[in-house]
């Protein structure tokens, strides 16, 4: 039986959900005056992304777009006719570069001759692609070899990453969002709050006067956003950025209505931030406890993620594992050593240097 508060909000795991059910795939729900929640289908186990339509004067501004799929364009055709009443899109805002968020930004922009807003870090990342018509390069294979992955498995992972589903339509222009930028939309001032770790320069939109936060993937209820290290930057420390962003987001009021990219809108932002931090701290502790003997990233992945299904899950889990390992190396709790072409991680000797020197070549 669902627990409800006096306002009819569902209570679950310390969060309050104003809507017990999400709209059907392709349908919209009004969440505030001039703000509509669109449920766009995705072809994965995580079968949806939440997009937001913002009414503005004689048209609409959309936040995020869905993947570069015929199904996505079909849903947009339906929404533009039935929900937008034939009024044009005036702008597209992309919280970040991932394919489910920016997949058809270029298509919508071309259709309506409207600008696309995103941060510079996300625009640049949008153009870093793995070519689908070429085999993986030496750097890609080397990255996964060092993690303990066999080349055959790496090639299969490369096939997942170069799948057309994960390649947004090319975008040749953008208007820059920066932390603190303000977008005036529909009589509201939406301030850009940049978060990091899940992606380089993720833009959340905060309307202080109305207590609304479009959080993209930076804050999700129930599930946790991927914080991963990949072949493009093998020694990255995105978990440091992620935990720092959690602290930054604590400056926003706990009372905001969080409009996330997945699952349902919710209240109790600070409680969710506490949960997200605790999740990663628990993974860090578990990893440390598992490194009394040297371990590869692949071995540590099996400790942190006991149930995986397919190469996509492995790809994400290995990236997360490396994010936690690199964080612990940076703070001096783990040491990264190369042995027979593999990186192995072990607990640092007490009193040793606080950080592993960067090997230049």
UniProtKB/TrEMBL annotation:
Pfam families reported in the protein's UniProt record: B_lactamase-like_C (PF21221), Lactamase_B (PF00753)
Entry keywords, A to Z: Hydrolase
GO molecular function, one term: hydrolase activity
UniProt keyword Hydrolase present: yes
Record-annotated Metallo-beta-lactamase domain positions: 48-262
Source superkingdom: Bacteria
Coiled-coil region(s): none
PANTHER family noted in UniProt: ENDORIBONUCLEASE LACTB2, METALLO-BETA-LACTAMASE SUPERFAMILY POTEIN
Protein name: Zn-dependent hydrolase
Organism the protein comes from: Pseudomonas alkylphenolica
């Amino acid at each position: 039986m669902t627990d409800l508060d006096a306002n009819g909000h569902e209570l679950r795991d310390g969060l309050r959900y104003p809507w017990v059910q999400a709209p059907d795939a392709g349908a919209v729900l009004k969440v505030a005056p001039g703000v509509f929640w669109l449920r766009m289908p995705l072809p994965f186990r995580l079968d949806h992304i939440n997009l937001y339509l913002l009414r503005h004067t004689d048209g609409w501004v959309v936040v995020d777009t869905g993947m570069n799929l015929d199904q996505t364009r079909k849903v947009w055709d339906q929404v533009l006719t039935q929900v937008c009443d034939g009024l044009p899109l005036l702008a597209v805002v992309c919280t970040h570069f991932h394919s489910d968020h920016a997949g058809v930004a270029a298509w919508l922009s071309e259709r309506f001759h409207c600008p696309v807003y995103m941060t510079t870090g996300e625009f640049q990342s949008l153009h870093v692609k793995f070519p689908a018509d070429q085999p993986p390069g030496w750097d890609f294979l080397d990255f996964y070899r060092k993690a303990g992955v066999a080349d055959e498995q790496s090639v299969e992972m490369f096939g997942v990453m170069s799948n057309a589903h994960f390649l947004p339509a090319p975008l040749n222009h953008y208007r820059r969002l920066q932390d603190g930028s303000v977008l005036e939309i529909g009589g509201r001032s939406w301030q850009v709050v940049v978060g990091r770790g899940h992606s380089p320069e993720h833009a959340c939109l905060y309307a202080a006067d109305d207590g609304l936060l479009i959080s993209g993937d930076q804050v999700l209820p129930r599930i946790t956003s991927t914080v991963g290290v990949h072949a493009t930057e093998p020694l990255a420390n995105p978990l440091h950025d992620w935990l720092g962003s959690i602290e930054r987001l604590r400056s926003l009021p706990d009372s905001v209505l969080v409009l996330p990219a997945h699952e349902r809108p919710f209240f109790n932002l600070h409680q969710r931030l506490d949960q997200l931090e605790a999740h990663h701290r628990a993974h860090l502790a578990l990893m440390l406890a598992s490194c009394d003997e040297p371990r590869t990233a692949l071995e540590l992945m099996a400790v942190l993620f006991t149930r995986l299904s397919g190469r996509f899950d492995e790809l994400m889990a290995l990236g997360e594992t490396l994010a936690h390992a690199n964080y612990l190396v940076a703070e001096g709790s783990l040491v990264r050593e190369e042995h027979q072409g593999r990186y192995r991680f072990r607990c640092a000797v007490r009193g040793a240097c606080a950080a592993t020197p960067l090997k230049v070549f």
